[in-house]
Design a protein that fits this description.
The complex is a heterodimer.
Chain A: E1 2-7, H1 15-22, E2 28-33, H2 36-41, E3 44-47, H3 53-62, H4 65-74, E4 79-82, H5 84-88, E5 92-93, E6 99-100, E7 107-111, E8 130-135, E9 137-138, E10 153-158, E11 160-164, E12 170-176, E13 178-186, E14 189-192, H6 200-212
Chain B: E1 6-14, E2 17-18, H1 33-43, E3 48-52, H2 57-73, E4 78-81, H3 87-96, E5 100-103, H4 105-109, H5 112-121, E6 126-134, E7 144-148, E8 153-158, H6 159-168, E9 173-178, H7 190-199, E10 204-207, H8 213-221, E11 227-230, H9 232-235, H10 241-250
Parallel strand pairs in B: 1-3, 1-11, 3-4, 4-5, 5-6, 6-9, 9-10, 10-11
Antiparallel strand pairs in B: 1-2, 6-7, 7-8
Helix pairs in contact in B: 1-2, 2-3
The chains are: A alpha/beta, B alpha/beta.
């Protein structure tokens, strides 16, 4: 049995990621929980996130999720962070003013276009949120990219992006006005800005790779 | 390469059944929204919009079960619209597996609801449906107003000002339907689409009037739409989604093929 704990801290829809994981095999057992012992005894952990970062961080700290994630990474358990889950791992976010985050990865979270207008290289205005299917360019040969063609499209929906301070942890980039971090990897942690649970075949392949992953790069 | 424009088939459902009729599927139960959503997803649809026209309370419970069933089997984004009036309605749909909700009448009767919804759940899941109708006479500068109740009830609200206000309240996307064009198959109201798309920073979905694939192209290239929504051209098998995507890509539009 492959036990996956999806961390529940009250933010958004955990149904989709659970159902996507369950669809991948009869031996996959998914539990949505905020219980430390349940999370730490699972074979692998999904750290999702949706909504505004201030509310997310408040709940993460209130429930002690920060400690759980640190403990899981200390014992090299595979962890997949998704969307705001990835942003919460950075040092801080400029959403909702300024919010301190977990500081597990080096970099900050910024708004597309800052306070002005986001433009492409031809000077054409780009809409924010960045919503829809965009190309993900792999920057390393991580096991989670197994069977996924470089440049494949994944589904994104976000107004804030990770501005990375250390390119060593970059796993993929996407272009929207400028290049930004679409995926990050550090030891047994893998984080994605897009939604694999909503990215059809490519997304399901990435989740399958996560289920097969031993946490080594 | 860049962000792709989206094709969104729309399923109109009553008490858990697709009601506008879907003829292209060789399946026993042509009204099953789960089956239809899965077929569209397999065909390459970029999102699914599920429009619930159920009025009764019992029907609502069926709707929640249907959304759950779709979200368990179809792994592309799902928007649920129709009858979303309270924060509890939104929570119920998101918990059932919807990724976004589309708010229509409730936004007009209580605009603050949009602000509360965006604050609570995030702009990324709040779509505001704007139903607009041209009210200016021939030869006058074009002017559109918001209508409710399927285009029967005028509100006096200017469509462009309204869309901008909804975005300032936190709407993450606008679903724009031309009430003049809906069901006509003569194409989107491109001037309306362009005016709204230029006025707001968030993505705009064009809806209402699609009769052929060139209409989809025009919606993007002339109307400035970020996504195109259509029902009948796909339901009745006139065109397939891969065919529509290829047609649009051949005309220079970035698509997920």
């Amino acid at each position: 049995m492959n036990r996956v704990a999806v961390i529940d801290y009250g933010m958004g829809n955990l149904h989709s990621v659970s159902k996507a994981l369950e669809s991948l095999g009869a031996d996959v057992q998914v539990e949505i929980t905020s219980d430390a012992s349940r999370i730490l005894s699972a074979d692998r952990i999904v750290f999702p996130g949706v909504g505004a970062i201030r509310d997310c961080m408040a709940e993460i700290l209130r429930l002690g999720i920060d400690v759980i994630v640190r403990d899981a990474l200390a014992c090299e358990k595979p962890v997949l962070a998704i969307c705001v889950g990835m942003q919460a791992l950075m040092q801080s976010s400029e959403e909702n003013g300024h919010v301190s985050c977990l500081g597990l990865l080096p970099g900050t979270v910024k708004r597309f276009g800052g306070t002005g207008t986001l433009q492409d290289t031809d000077g054409k205005r780009l809409k924010v949120p960045h919503m829809g299917w965009n190309n993900v360019y792999q920057t390393d040969a991580h096991p989670l990219w197994h069977g996924i063609e470089d440049g494949s499209r994944f589904y994104f929906v976000h107004s804030y992006f990770v501005a990375l301070a250390d390119a060593d942890v970059l796993a993929a980039e996407t272009e929207y006005g400028h290049r930004f971090a679409a995926a990050l990897s550090k030891k047994s942690l893998f984080a994605v800005q897009f939604h694999p649970e909503k990215s059809q075949h490519c997304g399901l392949q990435l989740l399958r790779n996560f289920l097969d992953w031993d946490g080594q790069c | 390469m860049a962000l792709a424009k989206r094709i969104i088939p729309c399923l109109d459902c009553d008490k858990g059944r697709v009601v506008k009729g879907v003829k292209f599927l060789d399946i026993r139960d042509a009204g099953d929204p789960v089956e239809i959503a899965r077929r569209y997803s397999d065909a390459g649809a970029d999102e699914i919009t599920f429009l619930d026209i159920t009025a009764s309370h019992e029907g609502r419970e069926t709707t929640v079960k249907t959304v759950e069933a779709i979200a368990s089997q179809v792994f592309i984004p799902l928007t649920v619209g129709g009858g979303i009036r309270t924060l509890e309605d939104i929570r119920t749909m998101l918990n059932a597996g919807a990724d976004k909700v589309s708010i229509n009448t409730a936004a007009v009767t209580n605009p603050e609801f949009v602000r509360q919804a965006a604050e609570k759940f995030g702009s990324q899941c709040i779509v505001v449906a704007v139903d607009a109708k041209k009210v200016s006479a021939e030869g006058e500068p074009a002017h559109w107003e918001i209508f409710t109740h399927g285009g029967r009830k005028a509100t006096g609200l200017d469509a462009i000002a309204w869309a901008k206000r909804m975005v300032s309240y936190g709407a993450g996307e606008i679903l724009l339907t031309s009430m003049d064009r809906d069901g006509t198959k003569i194409g989107f109201d491109l001037a309306l689409n362009r005016a709204i798309s230029d006025a707001v920073d968030v993505p705009v979905i064009a809806s209402g009037g699609v009769g052929n694939l060139q209409h989809l192209v025009d919606g993007v290239l002339q109307g400035g739409a970020d996504a195109v929504l259509a029902a009948s051209i796909f339901h009745f098998g006139e065109y397939s989604i891969p065919q529509a995507k290829r047609y649009m890509a051949e005309r220079g539009i970035t698509m997920r093929l």
